Amino acid sequence: MEAMLIDATKKGAEKFHLGTVPTPRPAEGEVLVEVKAVALSAWEKGFTQDDDPRSLTRRTRRRAVNLGLEFSGVVRSDGRRFTHGQHVMGGPHLTKGEKALAQYVAIREEYLAELPDNLGFLEAAALPIGAETALTGLDKATPRPGDSVLVVGASGGVGVYAVQIAAALGADVTAIGGRNSGPRLKELGARTVHSYRDTSFEDLTGTYDAVFDLSGRLRFGEVRKKLSRCGTFVNVNPHKDLAGTAASLFSKRKVPFVYVPHSSTAAQTRILDMVVRGEITPVVEAVHDIGRFRTAFTDLTHNERLGKIVISY
Ligand SMILES: NC(=O)c1ccc[n+]([C@@H]2O[C@H](COP(=O)([O-])OP(=O)(O)OC[C@H]3O[C@@H](n4cnc5c(N)ncnc54)[C@H](OP(=O)(O)O)[C@@H]3O)[C@@H](O)[C@H]2O)c1
Fold it and tell me: What is the CATH number for 76?
């Protein structure tokens, strides 16, 4: 089958190329899915920006297909839960096994959810891990109607769902995103919007019941000053602030552990129910055919994106 491969000797988007690898055979508990669309995320951005051949060789030596953590497609084998022909979405395991930017992926059935009739492959691919990470973070922060929620990095692939889900829960959402994303973030449910280029986190004067950081820049030490007395700092990069996470153990203000290594049927089903109810909508910045994959990877590293870049097969 055709798959997106990485040449560790090349730089930027030039390192990606289409090659041929064996079509995967589903193991016990897996089904084979013909991939129709893949969304690019911070994971692919990391590979695009990594121009160190030694680092790239280390990161790619264990598997053939290293890219594609969120996808949609058609089931092409019969499993226990899913059968041939069903339209599904999901996200393979972050650290184990092959990823999805290929013609086919073999994936555990408990990572998948069936698409509703009116949701296309391109939109569905933009949902799985971004929306599940947002949902998991907000499940930990448990905002109630009227609570104030600040989303930093709101214009990215997780942020656009954090804004929508928090708004659907009735929270008063403040979003910090890219310069041009303001009007769209308001449409998605933010009441107040700032551009991170004009307003930094330190500039904000309010306090928040939850701060959700997708920019990877905030630490508990600075966030705690802007949290309400029992507020929550949702940090999706906890490894970057271990001292802060430890300090929160002695504070009323909490830093829950958020780690979504793969999608889960239960969370994906909740997300699709929200889509069907009109509470969240997939946010797609651009769609590129697989033949234009270098443009897709280049776009991914440009600032001012809103939501996901999707590659269609
Ligand atoms: N814990 C988990 O299980 C889990 C799961 C998924 C993702 N993640 C992590 O979540 C983070 C976000 O992922 P993503 O896919 O949403 O990435 P993304 O699409 O690149 O989003 C990051 C956003 O942050 C914005 N940003 C950059 N600098 C900023 C600043 N100083 N202040 C405010 N916003 C700023 C970016 O804007 P520009 O585009 O203008 O630069 C972009 O919109 C990544 O660090 C990723 O590794 C964790």
Answer: 3.90.180.10
Q: Are 294 and 272 in contact (CB under 8 A)?
A: no
Q: How far apart are CA 288 and CA 67, in angstroms?
A: 16
Most informative mutation of 133, 240, 301, 302 for ligand 1 (most atoms within 8 A of CB): 133
- Give 14-52 pLDDT, tens digit per residue: 999 999 999 999 999 999 999 999 999 999 999 999 999
Would you say residue 28 lies in a domain? yes
Instruction: For residue 136, give the ligand 1 atom closest to its CA.
Output: 3
- Number of domains within the chain: 2
229 occurs within a structural domain: yes
Ligand 1 atom nearest to CA at 160: 16
Instruction: Look up residue 188 and give its amino acid.
Output: L
41 Cβ inside 6 Å of ligand 1:
yes
Closest C-alpha to 139, from 282, 264, 305: 264
